[in-house]
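Technical appendix A lists one of the benchmark inputs used to test multi-chain prediction within the project. The record comprises two sequence entries:
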Amino acid sequence: MDVLIQTLVSGILIGGIYALIGLGMTLIMGVMKIINLAHGQLMMVAMYITYMLYEYLHLDPYFSLLIAMPVLFALGALIQKYLLNPLLKVDSILPENQVLMTVGLAMVLTEIIRFIFHSDYRSVKTVYSNATLYISGISFNVPMIVAFGIAVLLSAVLFFFLLKTDLGKSVRATAQNKDAAILMGINAEWITILTYGLGSALVAAAGTLLLPIFYLFPDIGGPFTLKAFVITMLGGMGSTVGAIVGGVVLGIAESLGATYISMALKDAVAMVIFLLVLIFLPGGLKTLTKI
Amino acid sequence: MQSNNHEWRNDMRRLAVVLTVFFLALALTWTPAQAEETIKVGIILPLTGGQAAFGEIEKNSFEMALEEINAAGGINGKKLEFLFEDDTGKPEVARSAAEKLINKDKVVMLGGGYGSSETFAISGVAQQNSLPFLVNTGSADKITEQNWDYVFRLNQAVSEYPTGLESFLTEVVKPQTAAILFEDSAFGSGGAKSFQETCDRMGIKVVLSEGYSKGGMDFKPLLVKVKQANPDLVYMISYVMDAALLMTQSMELRIMPKAFIGGGAGFTLPEFAKNAGKAAEMVFSATLWYQTLPYPGAMEYYEKFVKKFNKETEYHGAEAYAAAYVMADTLKRAKSLQAKDVREALAATDIKTVFGPVKFISYDKKINQNKLPTYLVQWSGGKLELVWPKEVASKPYVFPIDWEKVWK
């Protein structure tokens, strides 16, 4: 029983961070209808910012959230404005030009970081990195719980923004029907810039929260881009609720798979679920929730 | 006048063309002439990708050795040149890198090869093209078990890693049960299999043997099983960051066997201790080399590297540094730079390097394999100390270990 509970606990906690990673990608997917294949790499950049702040200014990673998120917001907005939007105006053979651009961006970001920091593994070792709570034999890693809490909080703020504010409603309107939104007087170009910025800021938060428990090297982005992609598909492309559920489902599935099947097959478990969802629930988990 | 002008312009044009052709021809003849001055050797390492940190240590060591070799006169008067190619940690990239070095750059021999799967791919290409390949890190046993006469290995095979450990287990730890955790690569599963055989031979019961895919974030599901099995010994074959996370999460779950032993690779790197912090303390690891070993130049190499790169080095770097000297020695002795002659010279190698004596022999199913002992190190006070065999130890081992005290 202890084994099962411990497995579920670590699955849910990891799932919270996965959800945060997936949320950003799903937002971008919803509004721009593109898969942002530089998502994990943007997270990596945020992690390096946090790392630098910790290393040189001894700033606690949780405070760095307040810096890493705005910086990544700006970076994301600039990418959208100067690199992705101009592509929309160019007629070309491939309509997926923007996706290809994100692939290129991912490589450029990785190599710039490698050029500056080399390939060394780095990590942020705070006093609480290994802090653990024990409740009747089950261990809870404190930074994981904090990360989970902040992830929930950020998701709540995002929902408030999307549901209650004018700007948020404009984002949703653009996602639902871009042409109609433009006709209603929404500046769609500005909305795409805002969305890419928001998506980047969210994944920046995920990266910063991961840093006290995980580690950092220039190629860390790739696997997380893949995770974000799986979560986005699981949740139903463009659905924010779906992304949260998808993230937690992925976390739990990976943990259960690792405990009861084999840890070597952890990624295979995620992919099998991915396939099952595509076959039996092509619209993703959002078709179950109707939100 | 007009026609004259026209003619004059035509002449100038012709002159320009002639001059251009002349310079181009000069440039063309110049390049090969200059290239003939150096002897090219191709080195394939993971310079980007997840294993780039190791590739960098090795590349730095290769370059350091190269500088010294060329400063000391090069290869019979000619300069040695290393052409580095990046295998990005993928066998298919390694294969095309090897093909490029052989067919386009016309190297006289190949070196490097970090991961076992990549090394195996390069070995296949080298054998097909009959070009000597000196392996210095890839350690899966099968690499030298294919009867490939152009493939030589300087380092110990992964099945040898626990040999230095065996006597330590029988004389000091005396475990009844063991758990084996390994990354599911050629290197990891090969190492796990040979340690399982070691356990069977020594009468240690293996209660759990499980693989994982590297780069994981959460090892708790795996470690929970270890905790339940409660073994006397936990043996892990992992790369550096997996190793650090395995230890920090073991500490979190309070898994307390008599000893944690790493099977080389990640457990000996400075990054392991830096990232695992106090969870790295008192962890043992098999190792292939240590700077205080009585090999000529070992300590000098270590100190020079630290001074030059402001970073510590360990056995991977020593392997690369030694490989560079073996190559230089081979090329000096080779009758010609024909692949056949280089192979012959390489097979006849018998020199002492910082990594230990190098001589290629055949044993068991292996051919062209250098046989060297392995050692045991232990992390103590954030530093790696050689603790076994006793005769060469840099510090006495700490055992038994009070984990509550170490992890406080």
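Residues 2-289 of chain A form a domain with the ABC transporter involved in vitamin B12 uptake, BtuC fold (CATH 1.10.3470). Chain A has a mean pLDDT of 88. Comparable benchmark entries are summarised in Table A2.
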